[in-house]
Design brief:
Blueprint: E1 2-5, H1 12-21, E2 29-32, H2 43-52, E3 56-58, H3 62-77, H4 81-90, H5 100-107, E4 112-114, E5 118-121, E6 127-128, E7 131-132, H6 140-145, E8 161-164, H7 169-173, E9 179-182, E10 196-200, E11 210-215, E12 220-225
Parallel strand pairs: 1-2, 2-3, 5-8, 8-10
Antiparallel strand pairs: 1-11, 4-5, 6-7, 9-10, 11-12
Bound molecules: manganese (II) ion.
The site of manganese (II) ion has 5 residues, from loops.
Length: about 230
């Protein structure tokens, strides 16, 4: 099975409980749509786990992007690499776990993923009217900070379903659950991802304590609550 999640924000324990709940195993795949770090207690512990699993594919969100901006700023100031690593460790509540390998892996994250069934981005893809622009031509900033894509009236027709995070669904509907945008009203409960133009995945685990993921093969959603 293929799963997708976003905005885990350092909630390592909750993420592990969610993976237990879906019985995530070696022949499954998980796509993580950015904002793995910041806010929660275990950012580095979480990315170390994600980067160590061959069937987990991560992209960058605005929190990884902002971290990389800070990192590049330090690199311009000094060649004292031990000092830079020290400063980077102070960036995270569990920063003592940070090493150069993790910094390099964050630096190498892509900014979107595309499968046979969907496109995954952190915040959104620029649209012209109700047409998606080509995701490979968007800038990293557009993909991680987009403010327009989440809006209800943006219903891109044609092309693959777009999965995105970044804005807690609570801010859109008041509910901590994954939000589906069907292409046509009669498809409102479809189990086929092609029947949706976009799906919002950020359940806002750092606000309401709910972390969710979707199985993109069935459009079933799974949730765990903060303990
Ligand atoms: Mn974000």
């Amino acid at each position: 099975m293929v799963y997708c999640i976003s905005d885990i924000h350092g909630y390592y324990d909750q993420f592990c409980r969610l993976m237990d709940k879906i019985h995530f195993k070696e022949d499954d795949r998980l796509y993580v749509l950015g904002d793995m770090i910041d806010k929660g207690p275990d950012s580095i512990r979480l990315v170390k786990l994600l980067f160590s699993l061959p069937n987990v594919f991560c992209i960058a969100g605005n929190h990884e992007y902002d971290f990389l901006k800070y990192y590049r700023g330090l690199m311009r100031q000094t060649e004292d690499y031990d000092g830079i690593l020290e400063r980077l460790r102070e960036y995270f509540s569990d920063g003592s776990l940070l090493d150069w390998e993790i910094v390099d892996k964050i630096d190498l994250l892509p900014y979107y993923i595309e499968t046979e069934d969907f496109i995954g981005v952190h915040a959104g893809i620029p649209v012209q009217g109700n047409r998606l622009t080509e995701v490979e031509r968007a800038t990293c900033e557009q993909l991680v900070y987009d403010r327009k894509f989440k809006e209800r009236e943006v219903m891109p027709q044609g092309g693959k379903c777009v999965l995105f995070g970044h804005t807690p669904v609570q801010y859109l509907t008041g509910k901590d659950e994954i939000l589906f945008y069907p292409r046509r009203a009669e498809n409102a409960r479809s189990g086929n991802i092609a029947d949706y133009c976009k799906i919002a995945l950020d359940t806002g685990c750092w606000i309401g304590g709910v972390l969710g993921c979707i199985c993109t093969d069935t459009c079933r959603c799974f949730y765990v609550q903060k303990r």
